[in-house]
Amino acid sequence: MSSEVRKALVIVDVQVDFCEGGALAVAGGAEVAGAISRHVAESGYAHVVATRDHHIDPGAHFSSKPDFVRSWPVHCVAGTAGAEFHPRLEVGPLHEVFFKGQYSDGYSGFEGVDGTEHTLTEWLNAHEVTDVDVVGIAMDHCVRATALDAAKAGFTTSVLLDLTAGVSRATVESALTDLRAAGVTTTGTPIVV
């Protein structure tokens, strides 16, 4: 196996329902989609993959009286327009897409599977990826969980905060503390309105 650094970009949940006008919109989501598109065009990643919330029956994750901590309004239901990638996410053909949260909360992209039921860990290892940059929505929820799992799986992990949008300043600060404690590198500043 080569000792060469092989870096992948993991784009987390840049979907219609998480951007302005969506069922669970995060302010700045559409702006992040466009910024990620520009970043991919200017960068030379070995691989670019994405995760998608793809809820079928996620149980208590959906609630008519959500607490916005562990329960949420209905969003990203499999087969709906809200579950599609945002139209401003223009990154060309993705190397793979991982669907998460079919029957669970599905915060981390590492809980997802591709069309052949391979996990993100399995796919990255099969492609000899050593380093991952994580971007997307929301920084303080699914980006955080995905980056923590990437580090736990042994990948050198960075979160490019300029390419993320967060829900609130309090939860973003908490997420930053968790990421840094896990050895995840963070650069830039997330969009938090």
UniProtKB/TrEMBL annotation:
Keywords: Hydrolase, Metal-binding, Pyridine nucleotide biosynthesis
Domain Isochorismatase-like: 8-188
Gene Ontology MF term list: metal ion binding; nicotinamidase activity
EC number: 3.5.1.19
EC category name: hydrolase
InterPro entries: Isochorismatase-like_dom, Isochorismatase-like_sf, Isochorismatase_Nicotinamidase
Pathway the protein takes part in: Cofactor biosynthesis; nicotinate biosynthesis; nicotinate from nicotinamide: step 1/1
Biological processes per GO annotation: pyridine nucleotide biosynthetic process
Species for this entry: Saccharopolyspora gloriosae
Protein name: nicotinamidase
Pfam families, alphabetized: Isochorismatase (PF00857)
Signal peptide segment: none
Family of the protein in this entry: Belongs to the isochorismatase family.
